[in-house]
Amino acid sequence: MRLLPLALAASLFTGSALAAEQHKLFKSWTYGSPASAYSETEGFYDCSAEVGNPARCIEEVDFLGHSFGAILSFNNQQLESVILATDFTQDIYVKSVGALSKTFSMALMRRSNDQLDIIELARARGGKENFMARLNNYETLNLQQGQLTYFYLEQPATALMARKNAVDATVNAPADVRSAELSVTDNDGEPLLLINFSLPRLTLQNLKQALQQAPAEDF
């Protein structure tokens, strides 16, 4: 079954990509690399219409010994983010969380209408038991409802805990720090697992540049 392109993935794309140093997004795919590097001869196909953004997709990408599909999102013909997608299984969910946790630290969990800021929760008074209880309750409830996203930053937990909250940690992270959003979601009754790799600081910087360069006009 071809998992890609997935129209729902369009909502995960953010920002505007401008020229940037080539920092890793996923394996050899680097932020800011040209769209021309992802050609049909390499197995990519244009899935922009289905995704809703300039995008190219590819099937059978190996990650953790499992075959994923991948959506590569572009702005100004430069790579901005990579989303891996596969049918949800408990095995690949556990492997993905375990792999990310080796070099990434969780900053928050969220669903469509609210979120749990892990950094704020850890810094609040209440002790470890209260922290774990609220974390487990939020995770369990939303996994049962089939809709949950884990937001990670590629930094040690000590670096995150030095910040006030997840937003503070994200906007003050070094430019080459990746974020990873692992989502469990529903697609026409079928559970999917998505992992979105991006570089939030670079995306934010490029968005600011684009806004500053926008023409002024009276209205």
The averaged pLDDT comes out at 85
- Overall outline: globular
Strand arrangement, largest sheet?
A: 3-4-5-6-11-10-9-7-8
Termini separation comes to 50 Å
Class by helix and strand content?
Answer: alpha+beta
Count the helices. How many?
7
Question: Largest beta sheet, briefly?
Answer: 9 strands, antiparallel
Low-confidence stretches: 1-20
Strand share of the residues? 25-35%
Summarize the structure.
This protein has helices spanning 48-51, 90-103, 118-123, 127-144, 157-161, 166-171, 200-213; strands at residues 24-26, 29-30, 45-46, 55-63, 66-75, 78-87, 105-110, 115-117, 148-153, 179-187, 190-198. By secondary structure, the protein is α+β, with helices and mostly antiparallel strands.
Molecular structure report:
The protein is of the alpha+beta class. Helix content is 31%, strand content 32%. The chain contains 7 helices and 11 strands. The strands form 2 sheets. The protein has a 9-stranded antiparallel β-sheet with strand order 3-4-5-6-11-10-9-7-8. The longest helix has 18 residues, at 127-144. The termini are far apart.
What labels describe this entry?
single chain; alpha+beta; 219 residues
Q: In terms of topology, how is this protein built?
A:
Elements: E1 24-26, E2 29-30, E3 45-46, H1 48-51, E4 55-63, E5 66-75, E6 78-87, H2 90-103, E7 105-110, E8 115-117, H3 118-123, H4 127-144, E9 148-153, H5 157-161, H6 166-171, E10 179-187, E11 190-198, H7 200-213
Antiparallel strand pairs: 1-2, 3-4, 4-5, 5-6, 6-11, 7-8, 7-9, 9-10, 10-11
